[in-house]
Amino acid sequence: xxxxxxxxxxxxxxxxxxxxxxxxxxxxxxxxxxxxxxxxxxxxxxxxxxxxxxxxxxxxxxxxxxxxxxxxxxxxxxxxxxxxxxxxxxxxxxxxxxxxxxxxxxxxxxxxxxxxxxxxxxxxxxxxxxxxxxxxxxxxxxxxxxxxxxxxxxxxxxxxxxxxxxxxxxxxxxxxxxxxxxxxxxxxxxxxxxxxxxxxxxxxxxxxxxxxxxxxxxxxxxxxxxxxxxxxxxxxxxxxxxxxxxxxxxxxxxxxxxxxxxxxxxxxxxxxxxxxxxxxxxxxxxxxxxxxxxxxxxxxxxxxxxxxxxxxxxxxxxxxxxxxxxxxxxxxxxxxxxxxxxxxxxxxxxxxxxxxxxxxxxxxxxxxxxxxxxxxxxxxxxxxxxxxxxxxxxx
Length: 395
Prior knowledge:
seven-stranded mixed beta sheet, 2 domains, Aspartate Aminotransferase, domain 2, 13 helices, Aspartate Aminotransferase, domain 1
C-alpha cells in the first residue's frame, strides 16, 4: 500500500524535529552535528536569531500580495544583489529549478528579441545537475533522473566535463548558450578549472552565445566568495541562485545583465509566490549577515582548517578514502570502492554526523557557514569512527 507521502525519496530512518545553530535533534532526543545543512540550504544554521526575527516581524505585517504590485522588500533585495554581483536585474522565484528554468527561457527570449529565434539550444556538461523540471533533467541528461520521463525536452546538447574541443564542436547555428555549475555538487563536488571558465567566456563571446552559471548550490558565500565564479574572475550573462539565499526559507533568484534582462518584457514571465514579502524579509536578513564585513573572511579561514583536517583524515584512512574535493565549505570525500560513499553517510549518522551522498562515489560535506574549528574537530572525530566502521564492514 502506498504511503500518504508519495514515495519519491529513499529516506534514512531518522526523524528530525528541532534545530539550533549547527545542530539538529531527532524525535528520539538525539543530537546531530549537521554538515548536510538541508543540502547546502541552511547557510546560517538552524533558527538563526536574525532570520527568525525577520520572519516573525514580516508574518505579523504582510504575507502575500502578488507581483501585480510593488514589493518593497523585493526591490531592496534586488538592489543589494545587483550592487554586489555582475548583474543589472533580478527575477525572484521559489527554488533552484525555477531559477535555472527561467535562465533557459531568457536565453531563447534574448535571441528571439534580436532576430534569431532559431537559436534555442543550450550546451551543458557531463555530470551536471540543474533541477527536476522536464527542461532541467534534459539539460542534466543523467539517466537516473531522465528514466521514465521521455521523450526528453529538445534543445540540449551535452559535452564532456572540461573538454573545450567538444564544447566548440557542439556549437551550431541553433546554439543559444552554455550552462555550467562552477562547482558540480550532485556530480561529485567537482570545481571547474578557472582557465576553463575563462575559455568558456571567450567561446561565448566569439559565437554570440550567452553564458549561464548555475550557482544554486555553490552560491551565497559557500565557497568563500558571494558566488563561486568570482574565484575565476569570469562574469556570466545569467546566474541561477537559490538554496542558501533564503537560509532555509524557499527563495530563488535569476540574475542577469541588462542586455539579457531587457528582453524579458511585461508578461514574458511570472511567478505567483516568487519574491513574496515573507521570502524577501528572510532573504534580506541572510544578506545582512553574509555581506557583513569579515563574514566571508571567516568562511575562508574555517574552510582552510576543514581542508587540512580532511586531508589528514584521508591519510589515516587511505584504504577507504582517496582524496578531498571542493572549495570553501562545499567539500567532498572521494571513496575508493563504488557505493562506499553511501555506507560512509550511514555510518556517520550512527556516529551523530549528517552528510550527503554525491555522484562519482563522493560523500558531500556542506555545513552551515557559521561553523567553528571546534565543530570541525567534532566532525572529524565522528568521521574517523565512521571510516573505521566502513573498513570493518568491507573487511
